[in-house]
Each structure stands twice: as structure tokens, then as C-alpha cells.
Amino acid sequence: MRPIDIQRERTRHGRGSSAGFTLIDTLVTVALLGIVSAIAIPAMSSVLDSMRVGMGARDVERELQAARLLAVSSNRPIRVRFNCPAAGQYRLVELIGSPESPDAFDNDGARCGETAFPYPASDTDALTRPNLDGPVRRLPQGVSFGSAQTIEFWPNGTARADSGGGLPWPKIQASGTVVSVTKDSVTRSIEVNGLGKIRLR
Question: How many domains does the chain contain in total?
Fold first, then answer.
């Protein structure tokens, strides 16, 4: 037999073929994949946390912008309450009464739930209050408020915050107040100043 015929014969019977992987090749590949996964999974987790916090901060910033716009357009004070009715939830609500003398029902316990004050309002009469309450909104899963106090926007566009020191609430200082959202070590902040300017940081 010629050498070419011998090679063909070996290939036909499965001997002398170099195709396929050895057990060692497979084990090395699996080990490398395990090492790369061990490095990549924590990094991916951090990226996902950052994305969730960023998404939550943008949603809160939009809700604050909507509250300010609604206060100006409706000529009514509008509040945004945080951790209302539960942690990680928030709601835009129309003030019942006036900033100097809010109605007794205008508190976190009553105004945050949609049972007593549904969305959309069951009554569309412009003379009754409230008609402008929004739905209860939720931060993304695992994201919470770091610091947040109820913010009230007046019809002239200015912003005030509940400092617990009398009525009407004092105007927010020029340096502003911060609403922060957080998950683990990732935090984003929304700054609101007394003129009603809202900025995502």
C-alpha cells in the first residue's frame, strides 16, 4: 500500500484523525469560563444596581416636574409625598385646604392610599377637592429613598418643604433640598431649590 492509501484507511476507521477535543481541553475551557464568570457577575450586579437607581431617580425627577407644572397650570398647591403609603412608594397629591390651614385629612396616612382618595378621582367637579391626585408610584425593586421630605409646589412655581416647623411650610433655601434614591452603595440625588428648579445629579 502506498502512504496515501494508509492515511485514508486510518481516517476511515477513526484512527489518526485530529478532530475533536480531549478531556484536558474541555476541563481547561470549563475552568476558564468559571473564572471569567466569577469576575463578571459582581460587575454585572453593580451595573444593574446603577441602572435601577438611575431609572428610579429619573422617575422621581419627572414626578416632581409634573407636580410643579400641575401646581402652576391648575393654580393649586401640589405636594409630592415620599415613602407614602409604604417604603419606596411616592405620590403626587393636591393640597386640601390651604398652605396656611390644610384640611385634617391632608396627612400621609390618609392621602397616600388610593382607597380614600382614588386615582383617577371619582368626582370631576372642579369645585370639590381633590381632583388632581396622581397614582401611587413605586421605585424599582430593591431601590429605596435615602433622604426625602414632602415637597410642596405653589401656583407661582416656588417650592417648599415640610420641615416640621409651622404653617405654611418654609420656602426651600437657595442651596436646595435633596431627594435621594439608593441601592446598596449606589445613590442618585434630585435637588429642588426654592424657586422650584429641579435638577437630577
Answer: 1
The whole domain housing 143 covers: 38-200
Does residue 168 fall inside a structural domain? yes
Per-residue pLDDT tens listing for the chain (201 residues): 555 555 565 555 555 555 678 888 888 899 888 888 777 677 677 888 899 999 999 999 999 999 999 999 999 999 999 998 899 999 999 999 999 999 888 887 788 888 888 888 887 776 777 889 999 999 999 999 998 999 999 999 999 999 887 889 999 998 899 999 999 989 999 999 999 999 998
Cell of 182: 439608593
85: CATH: 3.55.40.10
177 SS3 class: strand
Residue 28 lies in a domain: no
Strand order in the sheet with 78-82: 136-138, 89-94, 78-82, 151-153, 159-161
In a domain, residue 22? The reply is no
